[in-house]
Write a structure and sequence with these properties.
248 residues; Rhomboid-like fold; two-stranded antiparallel ribbon; 4 strands; globular
Length: 248
Protein backbone atom coordinates (compact mmCIF):
# COMPACT_ATOMS: atom_id res chain seq x y z
CA UNK A 1 0.00 0.00 0.00
CA UNK A 2 2.88 2.34 0.70
CA UNK A 3 5.18 3.51 -2.07
CA UNK A 4 8.50 5.24 -2.30
CA UNK A 5 6.92 8.68 -1.99
CA UNK A 6 5.28 7.65 1.26
CA UNK A 7 1.76 8.30 0.01
CA UNK A 8 -0.79 5.77 1.28
CA UNK A 9 -3.40 6.66 -1.34
CA UNK A 10 -1.28 7.01 -4.48
CA UNK A 11 -2.09 3.52 -5.73
CA UNK A 12 -5.76 3.70 -4.77
CA UNK A 13 -8.38 3.94 -7.57
CA UNK A 14 -9.47 7.54 -8.06
CA UNK A 15 -13.14 7.29 -7.05
CA UNK A 16 -12.51 5.33 -3.84
CA UNK A 17 -9.74 7.72 -2.87
CA UNK A 18 -11.82 10.82 -3.51
CA UNK A 19 -14.89 9.43 -1.74
CA UNK A 20 -12.74 8.83 1.33
CA UNK A 21 -11.33 12.35 1.18
CA UNK A 22 -14.72 14.00 0.62
CA UNK A 23 -16.35 12.15 3.51
CA UNK A 24 -13.53 13.02 5.88
CA UNK A 25 -13.50 16.69 4.83
CA UNK A 26 -17.27 16.92 5.22
CA UNK A 27 -17.03 15.41 8.70
CA UNK A 28 -14.40 17.98 9.66
CA UNK A 29 -16.64 20.73 8.25
CA UNK A 30 -19.54 19.44 10.35
CA UNK A 31 -17.39 19.85 13.43
CA UNK A 32 -15.93 23.26 12.66
CA UNK A 33 -18.61 25.21 10.75
CA UNK A 34 -21.12 25.38 13.63
CA UNK A 35 -18.71 27.85 15.22
CA UNK A 36 -19.59 30.14 12.30
CA UNK A 37 -23.30 29.44 12.67
CA UNK A 38 -23.50 26.89 9.85
CA UNK A 39 -25.07 23.52 10.68
CA UNK A 40 -24.31 21.19 7.76
CA UNK A 41 -26.20 18.32 9.34
CA UNK A 42 -29.44 20.31 9.33
CA UNK A 43 -28.81 21.79 5.89
CA UNK A 44 -27.59 18.72 4.02
CA UNK A 45 -28.91 15.81 6.07
CA UNK A 46 -31.93 13.96 4.71
CA UNK A 47 -35.24 15.25 6.06
CA UNK A 48 -38.71 13.80 5.62
CA UNK A 49 -40.12 15.00 2.29
CA UNK A 50 -43.08 16.89 3.82
CA UNK A 51 -40.95 18.62 6.47
CA UNK A 52 -40.20 22.32 6.00
CA UNK A 53 -36.43 21.69 6.04
CA UNK A 54 -36.53 19.14 3.20
CA UNK A 55 -34.61 19.87 0.01
CA UNK A 56 -34.41 17.36 -2.91
CA UNK A 57 -30.62 17.79 -3.01
CA UNK A 58 -30.52 16.13 0.41
CA UNK A 59 -31.24 12.80 -1.31
CA UNK A 60 -27.57 12.92 -2.34
CA UNK A 61 -25.86 15.25 0.13
CA UNK A 62 -26.88 13.25 3.20
CA UNK A 63 -24.60 10.35 2.22
CA UNK A 64 -21.49 12.50 2.66
CA UNK A 65 -22.28 13.41 6.28
CA UNK A 66 -21.68 11.47 9.49
CA UNK A 67 -22.34 11.89 13.18
CA UNK A 68 -20.28 14.78 14.54
CA UNK A 69 -20.30 13.33 18.06
CA UNK A 70 -19.57 9.69 17.28
CA UNK A 71 -16.37 9.07 15.32
CA UNK A 72 -17.18 5.37 14.93
CA UNK A 73 -19.98 6.26 12.49
CA UNK A 74 -17.45 7.72 10.07
CA UNK A 75 -14.72 5.22 10.90
CA UNK A 76 -16.63 2.02 10.17
CA UNK A 77 -18.16 3.35 6.95
CA UNK A 78 -14.82 4.57 5.65
CA UNK A 79 -13.04 1.43 6.81
CA UNK A 80 -15.51 -0.66 4.79
CA UNK A 81 -15.03 1.61 1.77
CA UNK A 82 -11.26 1.30 2.21
CA UNK A 83 -11.42 -2.51 2.40
CA UNK A 84 -13.91 -3.29 -0.38
CA UNK A 85 -13.97 -0.21 -2.60
CA UNK A 86 -10.62 -0.55 -4.43
CA UNK A 87 -11.24 -4.09 -5.71
CA UNK A 88 -14.80 -3.27 -6.75
CA UNK A 89 -13.72 -0.10 -8.53
CA UNK A 90 -11.03 -1.98 -10.45
CA UNK A 91 -13.59 -4.67 -11.35
CA UNK A 92 -16.46 -2.38 -12.37
CA UNK A 93 -14.45 0.57 -13.66
CA UNK A 94 -14.38 3.98 -12.00
CA UNK A 95 -17.43 5.50 -13.72
CA UNK A 96 -19.61 2.49 -13.09
CA UNK A 97 -18.40 2.20 -9.50
CA UNK A 98 -19.27 5.85 -8.82
CA UNK A 99 -22.69 5.40 -10.42
CA UNK A 100 -23.27 2.31 -8.28
CA UNK A 101 -22.15 4.03 -5.07
CA UNK A 102 -24.39 7.07 -5.60
CA UNK A 103 -27.33 4.97 -6.77
CA UNK A 104 -27.20 2.78 -3.66
CA UNK A 105 -27.09 5.91 -1.52
CA UNK A 106 -30.04 7.37 -3.40
CA UNK A 107 -31.93 4.10 -3.08
CA UNK A 108 -31.32 4.07 0.66
CA UNK A 109 -32.69 7.63 0.91
CA UNK A 110 -35.83 6.78 -1.07
CA UNK A 111 -36.52 3.71 1.05
CA UNK A 112 -36.05 5.78 4.21
CA UNK A 113 -38.55 8.33 2.90
CA UNK A 114 -41.07 5.54 2.29
CA UNK A 115 -40.52 4.16 5.81
CA UNK A 116 -41.08 7.62 7.29
CA UNK A 117 -44.21 8.06 5.19
CA UNK A 118 -45.79 5.00 6.80
CA UNK A 119 -44.50 5.49 10.34
CA UNK A 120 -44.24 9.21 11.13
CA UNK A 121 -47.74 9.55 12.57
CA UNK A 122 -47.13 6.65 14.95
CA UNK A 123 -43.83 8.27 15.96
CA UNK A 124 -45.23 11.70 16.75
CA UNK A 125 -48.83 11.02 17.86
CA UNK A 126 -47.83 10.01 21.44
CA UNK A 127 -45.82 13.24 21.86
CA UNK A 128 -48.70 15.36 20.56
CA UNK A 129 -51.14 13.51 22.83
CA UNK A 130 -48.98 14.11 25.91
CA UNK A 131 -48.32 17.75 25.05
CA UNK A 132 -51.97 18.57 24.37
CA UNK A 133 -53.54 16.33 26.98
CA UNK A 134 -55.35 14.48 24.19
CA UNK A 135 -56.30 10.91 23.57
CA UNK A 136 -54.43 9.13 20.79
CA UNK A 137 -57.47 9.43 18.51
CA UNK A 138 -57.54 13.18 19.12
CA UNK A 139 -53.81 13.40 18.37
CA UNK A 140 -54.26 11.59 15.06
CA UNK A 141 -57.21 13.82 14.21
CA UNK A 142 -55.14 16.94 14.96
CA UNK A 143 -52.35 15.67 12.70
CA UNK A 144 -54.77 14.94 9.85
CA UNK A 145 -56.38 18.37 10.25
CA UNK A 146 -52.99 20.10 10.12
CA UNK A 147 -52.10 18.19 6.95
CA UNK A 148 -55.44 18.99 5.33
CA UNK A 149 -54.96 22.68 6.10
CA UNK A 150 -51.42 22.65 4.76
CA UNK A 151 -50.07 23.69 8.16
CA UNK A 152 -46.39 23.40 8.91
CA UNK A 153 -45.56 20.74 11.49
CA UNK A 154 -42.13 21.78 12.88
CA UNK A 155 -41.68 18.47 14.72
CA UNK A 156 -41.25 16.72 11.35
CA UNK A 157 -37.83 18.32 11.00
CA UNK A 158 -36.66 15.99 13.76
CA UNK A 159 -36.80 13.12 11.26
CA UNK A 160 -33.26 13.23 9.91
CA UNK A 161 -30.75 10.69 8.65
CA UNK A 162 -27.12 11.00 7.56
CA UNK A 163 -24.31 8.68 6.57
CA UNK A 164 -22.81 6.64 3.76
CA UNK A 165 -24.16 3.36 5.14
CA UNK A 166 -26.66 2.85 2.31
CA UNK A 167 -23.86 3.07 -0.24
CA UNK A 168 -21.59 0.91 1.92
CA UNK A 169 -24.18 -1.83 2.24
CA UNK A 170 -24.56 -1.72 -1.53
CA UNK A 171 -20.80 -2.18 -1.83
CA UNK A 172 -20.89 -5.13 0.57
CA UNK A 173 -23.63 -6.70 -1.53
CA UNK A 174 -21.67 -6.22 -4.76
CA UNK A 175 -18.55 -7.68 -3.17
CA UNK A 176 -20.46 -10.72 -1.97
CA UNK A 177 -22.05 -11.28 -5.37
CA UNK A 178 -18.96 -10.74 -7.49
CA UNK A 179 -16.60 -12.60 -5.15
CA UNK A 180 -18.94 -14.95 -3.27
CA UNK A 181 -16.36 -17.47 -2.11
CA UNK A 182 -13.62 -15.03 -1.16
CA UNK A 183 -12.78 -15.66 2.52
CA UNK A 184 -13.07 -12.67 4.82
CA UNK A 185 -12.03 -12.17 8.41
CA UNK A 186 -14.25 -10.16 10.73
CA UNK A 187 -13.25 -8.55 14.00
CA UNK A 188 -13.33 -10.95 16.96
CA UNK A 189 -14.04 -13.95 14.69
CA UNK A 190 -10.83 -15.96 14.15
CA UNK A 191 -12.14 -18.08 11.27
CA UNK A 192 -12.67 -16.97 7.66
CA UNK A 193 -16.22 -16.39 6.41
CA UNK A 194 -17.11 -16.54 2.74
CA UNK A 195 -18.20 -13.17 1.39
CA UNK A 196 -21.62 -14.46 0.35
CA UNK A 197 -22.44 -15.61 3.88
CA UNK A 198 -21.26 -12.32 5.35
CA UNK A 199 -23.62 -10.41 3.04
CA UNK A 200 -26.56 -12.70 3.83
CA UNK A 201 -25.81 -12.33 7.54
CA UNK A 202 -25.63 -8.53 7.37
CA UNK A 203 -28.89 -8.37 5.46
CA UNK A 204 -30.69 -10.68 7.89
CA UNK A 205 -29.45 -8.71 10.91
CA UNK A 206 -30.54 -5.39 9.41
CA UNK A 207 -33.97 -6.79 8.55
CA UNK A 208 -34.42 -8.14 12.08
CA UNK A 209 -33.32 -4.86 13.65
CA UNK A 210 -35.65 -2.94 11.33
CA UNK A 211 -38.83 -4.89 12.05
CA UNK A 212 -38.09 -5.34 15.77
CA UNK A 213 -37.25 -1.69 16.42
CA UNK A 214 -33.87 -2.64 17.86
CA UNK A 215 -31.35 0.23 17.75
CA UNK A 216 -34.15 2.50 16.50
CA UNK A 217 -31.73 5.43 16.08
CA UNK A 218 -30.15 3.54 13.13
CA UNK A 219 -31.84 3.63 9.71
CA UNK A 220 -31.87 -0.13 9.18
CA UNK A 221 -34.33 -0.07 6.29
CA UNK A 222 -32.18 2.54 4.55
CA UNK A 223 -29.29 0.06 4.72
CA UNK A 224 -31.52 -2.58 3.18
CA UNK A 225 -32.59 -0.02 0.57
CA UNK A 226 -28.97 0.42 -0.46
CA UNK A 227 -28.64 -3.34 -0.85
CA UNK A 228 -31.92 -3.59 -2.77
CA UNK A 229 -30.98 -0.93 -5.31
CA UNK A 230 -27.52 -2.47 -5.59
CA UNK A 231 -29.09 -5.86 -6.31
CA UNK A 232 -31.29 -4.39 -9.06
CA UNK A 233 -28.35 -2.61 -10.70
CA UNK A 234 -26.12 -5.69 -10.57
CA UNK A 235 -28.76 -7.92 -12.13
CA UNK A 236 -29.33 -5.38 -14.92
CA UNK A 237 -25.60 -5.23 -15.60
CA UNK A 238 -25.35 -9.01 -15.41
CA UNK A 239 -28.21 -9.43 -17.90
CA UNK A 240 -26.52 -7.00 -20.28
CA UNK A 241 -23.24 -8.89 -19.91
CA UNK A 242 -21.44 -5.86 -18.51
CA UNK A 243 -20.00 -7.67 -15.50
CA UNK A 244 -18.88 -11.14 -14.60
CA UNK A 245 -18.95 -12.82 -11.23
CA UNK A 246 -20.24 -16.16 -9.99
CA UNK A 247 -23.19 -14.85 -7.95
CA UNK A 248 -24.60 -16.78 -5.05
Amino acid sequence: MFNSSGSVFKNFPAVTKNLLIINILMWLAQITLPKAGINLTELLGLHFWIASDFNPAQLFTYMFLHSDNDFTHLFFNMFSLLMFGPLLERTLGSKRFLFYYLSCGLGAALVQEVVWQFTWKEIFAPFFANAGGWTMDQAYQAIDTALANGDNIPALNALLTIGASGSIFGILLAFGMLFPNLPLYLMFIPIPIKAKYMVIGYGAIEFFFGISGTMSSVAHFAHLGGMLFGLIILFIWKKKGNIGGNYF
